[in-house]
């Protein structure tokens, strides 16, 4: 499993030769400054945690360019299906075996609306099991007791957790989340993109280290291999 960071909550996963794009917010990212042309982004699937623009902005353009299937909650899937895009609707607690692995759409505590204010269903996160590696992508969420359910069905190898505070969990709650999900390897996301969520990188890493957890803050476009 290869994981590439595009800033904010945008990640590209490569599992079994398939390209899985998470929450593409690339063309409008204040971090990327147009460094990546969305027409160059590969995708077989686009997984959307929720409808907010800082997660869904480039989903339509990339899906139309690549023919990727958009996977999200029923309302978001319907929104894109109405634009002629191939979708796979899910809802909370449900899982499905895709050709790259098993995906479970899990609870997140947040909100979900499109840029025009229309309803974007309930927000969620994804647990993906593929190539004998298991990853949890929390999406935008508060710390929630529901995270304790995840290790009951999946032994995680790595988790992507928001740490930017204000709109989501901050660092301290993300450390508790990493305990709830029983995962020691964390990739931070949803920080530094806007003034509200700027963090102190060294402090964040030190706090995780002191809790016996490893926090990775990837460089933009940096990849890691599991
Ligand atoms: Ni959000
Ligand atoms: Mn967000």
Explain this structure:
With 226 residues, the chain is an alpha/beta fold. It has a single domain (2-218), classed as Ribonuclease Z/Hydroxyacylglutathione hydrolase-like (Metallo-beta-lactamase, Chain A, 4-Layer Sandwich), CATH 3.60.15. Helix content is 19%, strand content 29%. The chain is built from 6 helices and 14 strands. It has a 7-stranded mixed sheet, covered by helices on one side. It has a 7-stranded mixed sheet with strand order 7-8-9-10-11-12-13. Helix 6 (201-210) links the parallel strand 12 and strand 13. The radius of gyration is 16 Å and the shape is globular. The mean pLDDT is 98. Bound molecules: nickel (II) ion and manganese (II) ion (MN). Residues 50, 52, 110, 140 line the site of nickel (II) ion. Manganese (II) ion is lined by residues 52, 54-55, 140, 167, 190.
Count of distinct strands: 14
- Name the CATH superfamily classification: Ribonuclease Z/Hydroxyacylglutathione hydrolase-like
Number of domains: 1
The residue fraction in helices comes out at: 10-25%
